[in-house]
Amino acid sequence: MFSAATYNESELVNRLTNGDQQAMSELYDRFSGAILGVIMKIITDQAIAEDVLQETMLKIWNNINSFDTSKGRLFTWMINIARNQAIDKTRSKGFKNSSQNSSLEDSVYVSETVPSAGASVDTMDVQNWLLHLPEENRQLMRLAYFMGYTQEEISKELNMPLGTVKTKIRNSLIVLRKKLNVT
Amino acid sequence: MDLSCIIQSGDLELYVLGMLPPDEAGKIEALCKLFPEIQQEVDAIAATFEAGAMQMAVTPSADVKEKLMASISAKTGVAVAPEKNGSPVKVVEMKPVAEQKSSFSKFAIAASWGLFLLAGAFAVYLYNGNQQLKTDVATLQQNATKSEQQIGELAKEVSSYQLYRQLKSDPSLTTIALASVKPNEDFQAEVFWNKTSGELFIDPSYLPQIPIGKQYQLWFLIDGKPIDAGMISLTNTASIQKMKECKGAQMFAITVENEGGSPTPTMEQMIVAGKVG
Fold first, then answer.
1. FRET label pair with A173: which of A1, A142, B47, B257, CA 20 to 30 Å apart?
2. Which residues in chain A have their CB less than 8 angstroms from residue B50's CB?
3. Which of A79, A100, A121 is the last residue of a domain?
4. Pair (A115, A161) in one structural domain
5. Predicted ipTM beyond 0.85
């Protein structure tokens, strides 16, 4: 499905830097689904998630000159922007006033108990790749990755030693990576 | 260099997912530059998580693209200018920290690291040198103490020997040899006695080591009646000792008594004895 070899990343980045709108269109076609998928791990309401996707793509367009091809991969960079954008959204006043509850303890189970509107059964299953992890590690990963809490904040909030938080998150990532490699 | 500990630490995964604080991310970027193996690993991790993200792709509604393309064309004139609102700080996270610094500060950092390492190495060198000197001094002190002790012992032996010769050659002194009283033992001691003044010396250096809690006691006998001539020092066993005044002795004997001595000798504990010739 995805392969780094199927498109020329640096060429695409060059075109984007030069304000080539056609390049943006190609970028969108290639990555918007995946980016929305990441956003919807954090915001399950597809309408709000699509707003965040829009903001994310604009941010990519406007900040493409701060992306350095030699330092990292475009897609990873974009995913991280999307994630941060989504987390910012969940912390915004308007979002908090909506039905979503983003307090640390309560939000822990949200992404699993609330089915995302519009997501097919198949993608739901894949979305639950966190299920590969023991419950505690899943919770930590959700807080750290999908909710953007720093490891220090998680340590304080869950009353868990920082070292333990770090170890569990690291181990979770290593496990996830292995699982993703297999699938 | 073994990089497996870095590769297996989980830090690279955190870095790829943008979950490391900027300073730690900067360290990983520096490592990537130094070691192609780490760069490779980072790329592999990114590819894996990207593939994972692709798997959970959700197709957006068609109007999202339309809106996006419309807002882009409206903004084209200023497209290159960085966005002012939003949270640019987090975007910056992906940018290597080192890259943001001027070449001078890079040089300064490199130089200060160099200096730091040099200073550290020098401190270790000094510390090691100092430790060596301390050890040397301690050894020398030990040796000196040992030598002093040896000299002290030699001096004692010499003075003891001189005293012995003096006593032996003194015509006013009679030498009485004491020998083992039990047939299976072979111990000796010598008594030097001035019959007229009553001055009495003992050379106990050939007596066996005495058990703890016991002490040798010297007696002299007049008509078979034992009279205390004093305790033989426990600390000065190798040298000639001056004992109590003694007059009219016909025989000398040494017994093993409890430390501090007894008023009467324990006859079965007599170790050596000798008659005045």
1. A1
2. 2, 34, 73, 75-76, 79
3. A100
4. yes
5. no
